[in-house]
Each structure stands twice: as C-alpha cells, then as structure tokens.
C-alpha cells in the first residue's frame, strides 16, 4: 500500500507516515533498551523491586505532568517537524548521561529528563497523521504504533547482543547515535516543509493557533469537560498501566526468577513487540470499519486473560506463546484509543487533546510500576502480574460509558 485517498483531495503518498513512524520507533527504542538494562542496574546498585518500580514511575510521572504543556506548545507554535526532531534528540541524550550515574538519585534525574522530552512527540506526530489521512485514522495511527513496536522489538535483541561485548554504561553511550541520526533526518525531510512552500506537507510546519491565552484556556477547559475524550483517556490509562507494569517487571521476572540470560530476555521482549507489530494494523483497520468500541472491549478482556495464562504456564514452552498473545491484544487497541480521542476533539485543539490523553495515560503508567514493585516485595512477582490482569479486565467497564463514536473528523471550534 503506497497511497491513501482522503476526502476531497488527491491521493496522498505514505512517505510521511513511514518517516514519522520510524521516528516513533526510535523514541521507543530507548525505552526498550532501558527496560532491558534495569535488571543489571538494579543488581549493581542493590535496588529493591519497589525502587526499580519507582525509577519507571518517576519517568512516567514526569511525562504525565509535561504532556499537557507539550500539547499546548504544539497547537500554539505549530512547526511539528522541528518539534518532533527536538523531542527525539531530548529523549536520547539523558540516557547517555546514565553512563556516569552511580547512585539511585542520579538515575531519577536522568529518567525525569527523558519523561519531559518525550512529551512533545505524540502531540506533534499523532494529529499530523490523523488529519492528513482523515478517513484512515485507525490505520495510519496503527502504522505509527507499529514503528514503536519495531523499536521495542529490535532494541532488546541488538542491545542484548551488545551487552555480550560492552558494559551497560558503554551501551547507553553507543545508543545515542541512532536517535541523533533520526532527529537529523526528520529535520531535513520534515523541517524543510515550511509555510513558505506550497504543496503536500507544507502544513506540517505551518504556524500554530494564534488565539489569545484566555480563548485558548477556555477551549482547554472545554476539552477537560469533554466526556468522550476523558473516558477514552482514562480507559487508555488502564491499558498503559498494564503495559508499563509488564514491560518493567517481565525482564526482572525472566532474569531473577527463571534465570534467563540477557540475550534470551531480549528475545522474549522482542516477541511481545513483534506480536504488537502484527496486531496494530489489524486493530486499526477493523476499528475504521466496525467502530472503535468493539475492538477496544474485546482486546481488553483478552489481554487480561493472556496475562493470567502467561503466569499460569510458568516455565512451560507455552510461556512464549502467551507472551506473544499478551503483546497482540495489548497493542491491538493502542492506535484505536488514540483515533477515538482525536475524533472526540476539535481539529484546532488536536495537539492539546493528545496531550490530555497522554497525560492521563502516562499518569496511569507512572502508578503501575511502583504498585507492582510494592506488591512483588510483599507477595511475590506472581501477585504483581495478577494485579495487572485485573486492571485491564476491570477497565472494560469504562468503555460502556463512552458516547457512541463518530467516524468522522471533528470540526474546528470557532476562533
């Protein structure tokens, strides 16, 4: 598939989809790398499960707090190509600073910087894709999600292999290179599309919303009162809680409880992402055709069931199968929830709407690792996984309260 037809326009190529999706992959590459390094860092610094969970909680919490300002910056400044490049650069560099970290508190400073930098990516990238391909939101956002899956799939294998030759401190320095390279490509290919140029893509770096601060705050208040947007966002936060808890502690479980090597742990983490890579376009396409609600509800229930199955089979060969199924159903609904949120908000507030959604979802992600760590310290790692399964299954009840989705572009509010 190389073209997409949008309502009232000529066919549009998918070049920007592939580029932005690749950039998204690099933002997730760094996160996946850190998940793999956490067991090594934890052992070197003598961290408890609770402290390991707190590291990821702080990163997600920093992202949650900064997501809303990030969305507001995107809507008011515009210049999405430049903002995406800046975000990618900002995400990569703090991980390199960890190479000189020798205590728990320095690590917390680094992950806080990562959380802040990452908040600019999604409010810039997701509305760009959604409104350049308005009739195929679910599909193109699933491609964007697939980029993230690819980043998280390749990183554990590549980094796991590098750890056979280098220390984790050397690896985080080497790891900066792909992010800086991708940031430069985005600057060259998207940053060159300015308002002074006509043609496809010029709007990526168009100026932002020029309304006054009071008008903007009034519209922001209306977003926070938007029932559909808020419930979709809270539902997404439960999905992200399960994902964050799983990605933080599955490597710890595999390394500590099952005694797997770093390379095998990396392979297991890759299996989740490969399954998510396959699931993304399937879920996105089905939601474009059948509606968002059906896909989200079925995926939530099946994700919880598969987490329970994963823990139940233990060291059996079926463990890998259940890992893959968890990844499939967990990631099948990610782009669907993003498309649903975009459809619930006015077009001129799309960046802020994404900031609101990711602020809420990242808040959920910040809670999960810390709660999991406390549960694991008190009752064992298995109890933590049952907690995650319960979270995602119970979240299904919220979907019943979301107003019926409308598969159309939300109109812009009056300026």
Task: Summarize this structure briefly.
Helix content is 77%, strand content 1%. With 415 residues, the protein is an all-alpha fold. It has a two-stranded antiparallel sheet with strand order 1-2.
CATH architecture annotation name = Up-down Bundle
Number of domains: 1
Biggest sheet details: 2 strands, antiparallel
Helix content: over 70%
SSE pattern: EEHHHHHHHHHHHHHHHHH
CATH topology: Growth Hormone, Chain: A
- In what range is the share of β-strand residues? under 5%
Numbering strands along the chain, what is their spatial order in the largest sheet? 1-2
CATH superfamily caption: MFS general substrate transporter like domains
Mean pLDDT over the full residue set: 75
Distance between the termini: 37 Å
**What is the gyration radius calculated from CA atoms?**
20 Å
CATH top level? Answer: Mainly Alpha
Unreliable residue runs = 1-11, 193-202, 406-415
Number of strands: 2
Give the overall form.
Answer: globular
Number of DSSP helices? 17
């Amino acid at each position: 598939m190389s073209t997409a037809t949008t309502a009232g326009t000529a066919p549009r190529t998918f070049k920007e989809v592939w580029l932005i999706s690749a950039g998204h992959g690099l933002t997730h590459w760094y996160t996946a790398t850190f998940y793999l390094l956490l067991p090594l860092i934890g052992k070197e610094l003598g961290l408890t499960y609770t402290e390991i969970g707190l590291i990821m909680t702080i990163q997600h919490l920093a992202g949650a707090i900064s997501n809303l300002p990030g969305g507001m910056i995107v809507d008011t400044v515009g210049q999405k190509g430049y903002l995406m490049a800046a975000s990618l650069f900002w995400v990569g560099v703090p991980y390199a600073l960890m190479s000189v970290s020798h205590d728990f508190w320095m690590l917390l400073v680094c992950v806080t910087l990562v959380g802040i930098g990452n908040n600019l990516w999604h409010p810039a990238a997701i509305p760009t894709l959604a409104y350049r391909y308005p009739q195929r939101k679910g599909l193109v956002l699933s491609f964007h999600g697939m980029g993230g899956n690819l980043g998280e799939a390749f990183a554990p294998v590549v980094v796991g292999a590098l750890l056979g030759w280098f220390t984790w401190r050397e690896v985080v320095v080497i790891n900066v290179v792909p992010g800086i390279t991708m940031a430069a490509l985005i600057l060259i290919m998207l940053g060159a599309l300015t308002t002074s140029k006509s043609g496809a893509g010029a709007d990526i770096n168009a100026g932002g919303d020029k309304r006054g601060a009071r008008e903007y705050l009034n519209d922001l208040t209306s977003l926070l009162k938007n029932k559909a947007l808020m419930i979709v966002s809270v539902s997404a936060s439960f999905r992200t809680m399960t994902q964050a808890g799983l990605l933080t502690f599955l490597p710890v479980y595999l390394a500590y409880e099952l005694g797997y090597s770093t390379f095998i742990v990396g392979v297991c983490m890759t299996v989740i992402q490969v399954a998510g890579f396959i699931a993304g376009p399937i879920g996105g396409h089905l939601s474009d055709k059948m509606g968002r609600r059906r896909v989200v509800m079925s995926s939530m229930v099946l994700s919880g069931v598969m987490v329970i199955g994963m823990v139940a089979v233990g060291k059996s060969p079926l463990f890998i199968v259940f890992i893959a199924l968890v990844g499939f159903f967990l990631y099948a609904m990610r782009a669907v929830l993003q498309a649903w949120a975009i459809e619930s908000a006015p077009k001129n507030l799309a960046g802020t709407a994404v900031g609101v959604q990711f602020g809420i979802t990242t808040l959920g992600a910040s809670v999960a690792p810390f709660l999991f760590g406390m549960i694991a310290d008190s009752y064992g790692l298995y109890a933590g996984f049952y907690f995650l399964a319960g979270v995602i299954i119970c979240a299904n009840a919220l979907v019943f309260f979301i107003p019926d989705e409308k598969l159309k572009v939300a109109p812009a509010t009056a300026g």
